[in-house]
Amino acid sequence: MIPHVTHFDKTDITDLEAFRKQQNAEAEKRKLDVKFTPVVFIMKAVARCA
């Protein structure tokens, strides 16, 4: 049997979600072909920790 671990944490991303939606609205207004997802912000946070 191969050992494995599963770990979950809860976090309040209310402010992040509001900011993300604001940025998507601004990008759409400027007709930019970008879409911000939560993964973008998570990747940036992880990269800064390294």
UniProtKB/TrEMBL annotation:
Keywords in alphabetical order: Acyltransferase, Pyruvate, Transferase
Molecular function, one GO term: dihydrolipoyllysine-residue acetyltransferase activity
Pfam families, per database record: 2-oxoacid_dh
Enzyme Commission number: 2.3.1.12
SUPFAM superfamilies membership: CoA-dependent acyltransferases
Domain 2-oxoacid dehydrogenase acyltransferase catalytic residues, every copy: 2-49
Protein name (record): Dihydrolipoamide acetyltransferase component of pyruvate dehydrogenase complex
Taxonomy of the source species: Bacteria, Pseudomonadati, Pseudomonadota, Gammaproteobacteria, Enterobacterales
